[in-house]
Amino acid sequence: MVTARQLAQLCGVSVATVSRVFNRPATVSAATREHVERVARELDYSPNESARALSRQRSAMVGLVWDTDHRRPSWRHPFLQDLLLGLKSALSSHGYHLLMLATSDDGRSRTPGASLADPVAYVNMTRRHQLAGLVLIDSGTDADAFSVFAHSGLPCVALDVALSGPRATYVTSDNAAGAAEAVRHLAALGHRRIATITGPRGNAPATARTEGYLRGLAEADLPVRDDLMVTGDFYRESGFVRMRRLLARKEPPTAVFAASDEMAVGALLAARAAGLRVPGDVAVVGFDDIEVASLVDPALTTVAQDKRGFGTAAAGALLTMLDGDETPPPVRLPTKLVIRDSCGSRR
Amino acid sequence: MVTARQLAQLCGVSVATVSRVFNRPATVSAATREHVERVARELDYSPNESARALSRQRSAMVGLVWDTDHRRPSWRHPFLQDLLLGLKSALSSHGYHLLMLATSDDGRSRTPGASLADPVAYVNMTRRHQLAGLVLIDSGTDADAFSVFAHSGLPCVALDVALSGPRATYVTSDNAAGAAEAVRHLAALGHRRIATITGPRGNAPATARTEGYLRGLAEADLPVRDDLMVTGDFYRESGFVRMRRLLARKEPPTAVFAASDEMAVGALLAARAAGLRVPGDVAVVGFDDIEVASLVDPALTTVAQDKRGFGTAAAGALLTMLDGDETPPPVRLPTKLVIRDSCGSRR
DNA sequence: CTGAAAGCGCTTACAG
DNA sequence: CTGAAAGCGCTTACAG
Q1: Domain for residue B85, yes or no?
Q2: Are residues B163 and B226 located together in one domain of the fold?
């Protein structure tokens, strides 16, 4: 492996000049710059990142905090894959790489109620590796733990968690607008009793979707009915159970807006178990547009999130903090209603 | 941020001693070791990884090569999430972290036919960051590109690709055994014309599954019939198209083994489109046990892979190479036949 | 525009 | 068992 010193010797310049060629090319004369660049290419030279990080006091890596509660093995992010893809390609085009942080506590026991294995251990990792910034993925539970990061001073961008701090921002879908659109669509199809199965209390996207549901009802001049609002937890099982409860009401809904596709699928199964046809007897709309949505029968009408856009937007926000001094405002990604068969609007 | 020097001063020892306490505790007297450890804990000291990597010529990071062809945006790993989870928790318990490698070419155009954005660029990253090892995730296409890594000399473990080299090994499911079991199961249910929709040619797991299919037929004393073997590409659409073709045969199959759940779902849809009932008119079995499998109707009988085990096994193999000198043999993970409704064996 | 020198924070033979 | 010293490969004021 060739070093800057060797390259410098070969070129008849000092290591300082070599360094400048790669870091502030403008400060080097065109002739020597081109010469160094050419030889570097020939020797396949590239700077040692450890040395670089050490002297700069900052690495070219961004930490990814994605902590899953192992007591709940079923937990899954609805679209982690697209998110990572978006993140890594956007970051790499600016020379940054993603370091997946894990504490040694990972996979072990943790204090009940702790939403993160150990925020302090993560912050520690951050210092050890001299990370340039942090991407925080909502672990689905208590988001307060994230504030530790937001206050650590380094650039942070959270996904689906309202993070605030001097150098912290976040990206999320426009959950309220998406939910409202879904409800309006159902109302336009003639439904008057539109129920909702919400996400867990305290979860920001869940709250926003409920808000959107209410807004959608209002816009369609429909009354809010407490008996048509039930609380789920985003997972399929809760969709099943809550749907069963809704269907047992005196006046059951003719349409249901579930705050996640997982729950919508559960609702579909519950309707079938109750001998009802979807969308004939009851219409169902979900949220997310995960892969399953198009595979179930009937195919699920749902509010699609811009999955790849999440990663790109997060990377974008982070990069403006890394390269500049300003903290970008929160990003709210537009959603899109994908109409399939479960809402009955197709002929 | 406190450094080793500061810690040393506080403890009245040299930095060399501080370093030894953290790296070869056995070479330090118990008294000074405990003293240094205590003070270190009080000051929340932890060594700077960049400095460490620089002087050791090797970082505590493992690179993850997961290159997806962006020309094919639909490509997805059947269980990336579990895999990453398994990897990161196993690695972190030994102090290693995962660095998601990306070349700046990511998301841009690439040479047609190139299976990896640029293997050389990845190897380059590997040197720059002084990575301790590499985890290679099959990108679903030409696996030859991986040999560049295997020959780079550093510890490599590939997933689902037969990688060989001085310090290279791989982990995969026992695809043949799993497929054979699925076929035997169908035969035991009385099926005589069992078809298969294979994965793409040249793909190792696909080949092994086909092999298992043939073995299963042999074990059940069933003849191999060319008209009952069609080639898919692991994706749903191909399952749909190939199933339609199978159903159009003179003597259509009464059961189909699809080499992936995605294709099995496609097959399910094709059967339905043809007015056939599953499993009444034709039985279907898949492979993978992805989330969708239990959500479709009828729920899919499938060969489950040990998703979390993949990550753990890969990390294990890598760790023995990182900490020792031996190269572990390939790992073949057992599969498990999960019987649901699509094969008709349940009453 | 360029070079000499100090420094980033560790680890590791080498002496003692 | 411990310390002094060299070295890992860069970057960055500071002079010139």
Answers
A1: yes
A2: no
We report the CATH number of the domain holding residue A149 as: 3.40.50.2300
Q: A344 near A191, Cβ under 8 Å?
A: no
Q: How far apart are CA B206 and CA B83, in angstroms?
A: 19
Q: CA angle, corner A89, sides to A136 and A148, nearest 5?
A: 15
Tell me: do B167 and B182 sit in the same domain: no
pLDDT digit string (tens) for chain A, length 347 residues: 799 999 999 999 999 999 999 999 999 999 999 999 999 999 999 999 999 999 999 999 999 998 765 555 456 788 888 899 889 989 998 999 999 987 655 555 545 445 566 778 888 899 999 999 999 987 655 566 788 888 888 999 999 988 888 899 999 999 999 999 999 999 999 999 999 999 999 888 999 999 999 999 999 999 999 999 999 999 999 999 999 999 999 999 999 999 999 999 999 999 999 999 999 999 999 999 998 898 888 899 999 999 989 999 999 999 999 988 889 999 999 999 999 999 987 53
Nucleotides of D under 7 A from a protein CB: 1-5, 7-13
- Strand C reaches within 7 A of the B31 CB: no
Rounded to the nearest angstrom, the minimum Cα separation between B311 and chain A is 13
For residue A103, the chain B residue with the least C-alpha distance is: B92
* 8 A C-beta contact, residue A176 and residue A212: yes
In Å, what is the separation between the CA of B17 and the C1' of D2? 7
For residue B79, give Cα distances in angstroms to A90, A220, B262.
23, 41, 12
For residue A245, what are its two tokens?
Answer: 């409860």
Q: Maximum distance among all alpha carbons in chain A?
A: 88
Residues A272 and A232 in one domain: yes
Which residues of chain B are within 8 Å of residue A107 when distances are taken between CB atoms?
A: 89-90, 93
Q: Let me know whether B220 and B317 are in one domain.
A: no
List bases, strand C, within 7 Å of protein CB: 1-5, 7-13
Residue A263: inside a domain = yes
CA proximity to A76, closest of B81, B66, B293, B305: B81
Number of domains in chain B: 3
Residues B77 and B28 in one domain: no
Q: How far is B305 from chain A (nearest CA, A)?
A: 16
User: Mutating which of B72, B74, B92 best tests the A interface, going by the most A Cβ atoms within 10 A?
Assistant: B92
Angle at A200 between CA A293 and CA A112, to 5 degrees: 120
> Does A343 map to a domain?
no
Domain that holds residue B181: 175-305
The whole-angstrom distance between B164's CA and the closest CA on chain A is 24
The CATH number covering residue A25 comes to 1.10.260
CB pairs under 8 A between A and B: 134
- Domain assignment present for residue A342? The answer is no
Q: Do B130 and A50 touch (CB under 8 A)?
A: yes
Q: Do A89 and B76 touch (CB under 8 A)?
A: no
